[in-house]
Amino acid sequence: MAVLDTASAGQVFGPYEVAIDPNRAEAYASAVGGSESPRYEDGLPPVALVAAGLTKLIDELGLAGGTVHLSQEAEFLRKVRAGEPISAKAELKANSVRRGSRFATLFVEYRDADGRLVATSSSTVMVPA
Amino acid sequence: MTLAGAHKSGDLLAGFDRLVTQDRIEAYARASGDFNPIHIDAEFARNTQFGGRIAHGMLVLAFVSEMLAANFPATWHRGGRMKVRFRSPVFPGETVTVFGEVTGVSGSGPDAVLELKIGCRKPDGSEAISGEASVPVG
């Protein structure tokens, strides 16, 4: 049974670590970068952190492979360094079943080692029920 | 209407095209940790609603974020916000076009924030991603 089957709005997940090591940072630059891209020497875009955090959360919640990402919100406060320890804490904001599919919205805060907020995100996913 | 700085409503941001290759998708899987077979496994993906492998939505969104970082290098990562919907899958071999347009401004002086319409189009003109962003420009 997936965690979301019994979870209620307000439930908190984590905190868990979502550091992006140098190998993953290099992979990010290969995947996303182009000639017009800003250079990554001074840090990774926090959208990379949001993606890594969402992946970790999906794993933690045991969501099925057919999960579809419907929408995404994010706010960025600063870049992150490769390997920098970042802590993510998620809160389930909505969780319902409609027409045979589960819809869930998860809000995540990302904080650095000093507890300062680096980014926030809100993801809505549809999971086959 | 003249907005904060040199921007005015209706201004288009400098966008770009990006060819989405399977190599990019696999690099993004390593970067994000998302090895969902819908992105990686051709055999698995053939039997899904999409009929083949698709790019991670967050990869396509990362292209949009790159455009915003290139247009607003000093501020996008220090107070930028985005809100988007994923509308259509992007398949390997497709070239997508990221775009942005200034729609307004809120605040003034050091608190000025540009409001933008943002997104990413597929080769057939349909939108893979669409939404809004705001960027401090004060």
For this structure, what is the CATH class of the domain at 16-20 and 54-136 in chain B? Answer: Alpha Beta
Order of helices and strands of chain A: EHHEEEE
The second-level CATH architecture of chain A is Roll
CATH topology of chain A: Thiol Ester Dehydrase, Chain A
Bin the helical content of chain A. Answer: 10-25%
CATH class group of chain A: Alpha Beta
CATH superfamily of the domain at 16-20 and 54-136 in chain B, please?
Answer: Hotdog Thioesterase
Question: How many E-type strands of chain A?
Answer: 5
The SS-based structural class of chain B is alpha+beta
Q: Look at the structure and name the CATH superfamily of chain A.
A: Hotdog Thioesterase
Main beta sheet of chain B, described? 5 strands, antiparallel
Major sheet characteristics of chain A: 5 strands, antiparallel
**Average pLDDT across residues of chain B?**
92
Oligomer: heterodimer
| Helical stretch tally of chain A | 2
The low-confidence parts of chain B are none
- The number of strands of chain B is 5
**Overall radius of gyration of chain B:** 17 Å
The H-and-E topology of chain B, N to C, reads as EHHHHEEEE
